[in-house]
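Z., the sequence and structure:
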Amino acid sequence: MSNLMHELPLAITCGDPAGVGPEVIEKSIRGDNCKDYVVIGPRTWCESMSNAIGAKTTVVGPEDYIAKLGSPSIQSAEVAVDALREAANGCIEGRYRGVVSGPVSKHWLQLIGFDYPGQTEFFADAWGGCPTMGFVGKSL
């Protein structure tokens, strides 16, 4: 990886903003050097991340969207996909060095017509590669 790539931030997507992703992400990067990350998600979550831990943010989804924790929906799935698209495009355009994707509800993604079985296949298609996961649990 070139020195220039090391200077680019890592994109972290919110996952389904009505799920555990936003909480897990905030706890994972709290106290870390947030200049190395850009968190991508809905406005209210991005504002919270910026205020709480100084994270850089990129807002996606409707301006007035507010997640109802524990209640995934069509709209929360659409916001999750918006975050995935922003991360994929940002890597292609040279704004991000890579992506960490928050957990999504595959059920809700399928309900909105997401064309992939999961995030791995989405990124492989966006970047023209073969689907490869970096970390896998024993039940996958």
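DSSP finds six helices and four strands in the chain. The longest strand covers residues 37-41.

Let me know what you think.
H.
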